[in-house]
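Task 17 of the worksheet. Students: predict the tertiary structure of the chain below and write it out as structure tokens. Keep your answer in the requested format; marks are given for formatting as well as content.
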Amino acid sequence: MPLLFLALLICGDIASTQPDVAFQQPQIASDGKNVGIIFGSKDAIYFASPDSTPVRVADVPGLSLGNHRGPRIAFAENAIVVTAGVGPAGPEFGPNTLRSWRSTDQGKTWGQGADVSTPATGGMGFQAIASDGKRQLWAAWIGPQGGHPTFFVSQSNDAGLTWSKQRVLSQTVCECCHPNVTISADGTVVILFRNSLAGNRDLYLAKSKDGADFTFAKLGQGSWKIDACPMDGGGLGELDGSVVTVWRREAELFLARPDGKPEESLGRGRNASITLRPSGYYAVWTSSDGVMIKVPNRPVYVLSKTGAFPVITARGPIVAAWEDNGKIRTSVIE
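Model answer:
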């Protein structure tokens, strides 16, 4: 599809025709050509592509939604895979289960997939998935174990038809900050999460070339000592093995790479998402001025004066999406 045609199709709003239905928490993905957006409303999950109206993926009583909780999406080789935390609302580190849905016709119809987590270990819905664009997917989520929050992972080698037995990636994790996952072309898995160690809530990268043994590295030279959850896990971008991250410490956003160099301040903000391209990085976030964006060779500018929780595509056309007063707004950046 020509990029100009895509831009004409995707720029605009995705709004419900029902006055009591408000769309929340968009996530966006691409297979390099097609773009898909997943989001929630009350006890339902919806999917939209640039040239279609929203499709109801499933009715999901007990859907985790709001504050970085909600469905996640990934394009595999011959399927679109969606995950979401489902379970009773209210309890801390609640007994949710991370469930999945699949579509094999570009999002027109959907079917229930395999559960990703074991029952009651899906936490409160802080989770992420990623695909290598072929048949491999990884999921990461925060759930309960032994009375405290624990960081779990699982993988699929058949485009989300089945998932491996979950395993603990870290016994320590910030309880309400969503993780991020990427998979490189060579199969390297990189996972960004906010840890909770010695009173500090700092960002860490976990990396594995074989999917079995992970190395861990703290990001940034500073630390954030806080006895509370920031509810903000930042963003992770990857291209040809290079990794870039953006995340919040106190009221300030920082850009960092896993190279040991000092983090770079982007100014005040929160709820950031980032993607990496040959020309540089593209980042979106929320500030007091609205939804902000930084693109290569241009100063930061306002993408929208209203809205929150912006996200941006990891592959393909660079498209941003965010929630705004019950609508999902989209914009083609490049």
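Marker's comment: The domain at 3-332 is CATH 2.120.10.10 (Neuraminidase). Residues 157 and 189 are 13 Å apart (CA to CA).
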